[in-house]
């Protein structure tokens, strides 16, 4: 049965056209048989989770976790500003003080190690795929004008007045659509932002969304009296909600840390999540490799037919960078340095662009509507960022806040010609792994939301981006905990996998 399943999988992935892969099929079958015997001995004959079931559950779990804002719908009655204070967090027998140096604050046994094979990072087996096709390193995009035409402004004001009329007449759905239409026409008009925020508070009880709109209104008009008044009311409530969410993440992290590193289910989910992480973080940047193809490249180092050399080398670069973090940076004592960031980028782009990897850009680049700093400012801004990462103020932050802000700052500076997003996500995960969190997966399906929250940060409010990362962190932790709970004796049942719009039932 296992052999038939292996043959069917190989036929599906196109192995039948490669006679030389017969040996690979034999090895896959042999390893699968050995793994099956181990799992049977561990869990009994009635429970044998397959790779497909675990992969399906990874996808399904991420889709089933409630959105961040929805999970935080609660009433907070006390109104006081949330100020970051020096906090000590007890984990096991160790007390971690966040005012200390971040690289020293977490003992090695508290860091999250991926338990990867201890093979050299730059072994001969990891040769890059041929040569990279000639590509334009700087993708110039026309800067989107933020100026709103007179006609759009007039129509936006008309929509605002109509929305207020519908709101007064309690036709709330129509009012919602009119507010949204006004926002599309004139997205930075403080009156529209403020009144829409008030509507969200009353109609949807969305304090977080309303507070974000008030913040945007004040970014456009700092002296807007109504926005200031509303923000003074909502800010303490939102800060308390954010604080509550971060404490929940710590509880989930601590639960995961109590599981022994020798736990076979934990080791297996680490491996599966590793493939998923590389697949998703490459996919966010437009890489078209499927999960199965990504796994094949990482396990066999063989080329996938029909895919570009560049896409192959992007996968290898992410693999090298994540292994470098896991085997080197995670266990290094000392402060964060600019050299660390350049080394991560060197690994990320080492296969795809050996000439520019680890090199700070020397010309101006454009990223959609965002114009990054001029080239002559980049090195100084990077050093300022590193100084901030090592500052006491930064080290007092919650690890998810700290890692999210590091992620955003690097993306904003955009110090490289290519690979900025991948490097920023890896930098973020290095800091999270130091604090005992697993590498957080941002799914490629969340790409638009990811970019939207980054854009919100560019407009003056970084909190939606931190909340987005917190949501992804919770999803990742829940997947790890689910996998270990299921392997502990709970019934797996059927898992759902979405494939190109179809729902496939994977039997237990």
UniProtKB/TrEMBL annotation:
The protein depicted here goes by the name: Protein adenylyltransferase Fic
Q: How does it sit in the membrane?
A: Single-pass membrane protein
Q: Which domain of life is it from?
A: Eukaryota
Provide the Fido domain boundaries. Answer: 336-471
Glycosylated residues, per the record, are: 326
- What Enzyme Commission number(s) does the record list for this chain? 2.7.7.108
For the ligand (ATP), the binding residues are 367-370, 418-425, 450-451, 458
Q: Where is the active site?
A: 414
One GO cellular-component annotation of the UniProt record comes to: membrane
Instruction: Please provide, alphabetically and separated by semicolons, the GO molecular function terms listed in this UniProt record.
Output: AMPylase activity; ATP binding
Repeat (TPR) residue spans along the chain:
156-189
Which leading EC class covers this enzyme? Answer: transferase
Q: What is its main location?
A: membrane
Q: Which reaction(s) does its UniProt entry say it catalyses? A: 3-O-(5'-adenylyl)-L-threonyl-[protein] + H2O = L-threonyl-[protein] + AMP + H(+); L-threonyl-[protein] + ATP = 3-O-(5'-adenylyl)-L-threonyl-[protein] + diphosphate; L-tyrosyl-[protein] + ATP = O-(5'-adenylyl)-L-tyrosyl-[protein] + diphosphate
> Which cell locations does it reside in?
Membrane
Q: Which keywords label this protein? A: ATP-binding, Membrane, Nucleotide-binding, Nucleotidyltransferase, Repeat, TPR repeat, Transferase, Transmembrane, Transmembrane helix
Site Important for autoinhibition of adenylyltransferase activity: give positions: 285
Q: TM spans, by residue?
A: 21-44
Q: Which family does it belong to?
A: Belongs to the fic family.
């Amino acid at each position: 049965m296992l052999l038939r399943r292996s043959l069917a999988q190989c036929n599906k992935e196109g192995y039948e056209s490669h006679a030389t892969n017969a040996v690979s099929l034999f090895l896959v079958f042999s390893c699968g048989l050995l793994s099956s015997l181990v799992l049977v001995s561990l869990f009994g004959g009635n429970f044998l989770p397959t790779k497909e079931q675990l992969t399906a559950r990874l996808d399904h779990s991420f889709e089933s976790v409630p959105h961040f804002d929805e999970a935080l719908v609660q009433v907070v009655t006390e109104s006081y500003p949330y100020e970051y204070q020096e906090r000590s967090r007890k984990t096991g027998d160790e007390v971690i003080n966040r005012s200390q140096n971040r690289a020293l604050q977490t003992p090695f046994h508290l860091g999250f190690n991926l338990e990867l094979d201890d093979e050299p990072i730059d072994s001969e087996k990891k040769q890059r795929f041929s040569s990279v096709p000639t590509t334009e390193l700087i993708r110039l995009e026309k800067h989107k004008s933020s100026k709103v035409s007179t006609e759009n402004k007039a129509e936006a004001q008309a929509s605002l007045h109509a929305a207020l009329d519908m709101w007064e007449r309690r036709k709330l759905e129509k009012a919602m659509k009119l507010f949204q239409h006004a926002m599309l026409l004139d997205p930075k008009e403080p009156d529209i932002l403020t009144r829409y925020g008030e509507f969200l508070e009353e109609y949807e009880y969305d304090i977080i969304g309303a507070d974000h709109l008030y913040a945007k209104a004040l970014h456009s008009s700092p002296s807007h009296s109504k926005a200031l008044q509303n923000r003074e009311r909502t800010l303490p409530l939102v800060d308390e909600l954010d604080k509550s969410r971060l404490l929940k993440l710590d509880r989930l992290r601590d639960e995961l840390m109590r599981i022994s590193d020798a736990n076979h289910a934990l080791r297996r989910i680490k491996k599966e999540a590793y493939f998923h992480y590389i697949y998703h973080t490459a996919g966010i940047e437009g890489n078209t490799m499927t999960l199965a193809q990504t796994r094949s490249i990482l396990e066999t180092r063989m080329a996938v037919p029909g895919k570009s050399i560049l896409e192959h080398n992007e996968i290898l670069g992410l693999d090298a960078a994540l292994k470098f973090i896991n085997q080197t940076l995670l266990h290094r004592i000392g402060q964060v340095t600019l050299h660390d960031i350049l080394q991560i980028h060197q690994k990320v782009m080492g296969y795809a662009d050996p000439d520019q990897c680890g090199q700070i850009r020397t010309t101006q680049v454009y990223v959609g509507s965002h114009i990054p700093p001029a080239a002559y400012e980049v090195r100084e801004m990077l050093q300022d960022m590193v100084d901030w990462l090592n500052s006491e103020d930064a080290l007092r932050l919650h690890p998810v806040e700290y890692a999210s802000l590091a992620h955003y700052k690097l993306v904003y500076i955009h110090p490289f010609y290519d690979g900025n997003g991948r490097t920023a996500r890896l930098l973020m995960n290095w800091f999270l792994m130091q604090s005992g969190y697993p590498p957080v997966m941002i799914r490629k399906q969340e790409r638009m939301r990811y970019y939207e929250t980054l854009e919100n940060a560019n407009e003056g409010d970084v909190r939606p981006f931190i909340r987005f990362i917190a949501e992804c962190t919770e999803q990742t932790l829940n997947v790890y905990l689910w996998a270990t709970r299921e392997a502990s004796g709970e019934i797996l049942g059927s898992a759902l996998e979405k494939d190109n719009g179809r729902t496939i039932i994977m039997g237990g």
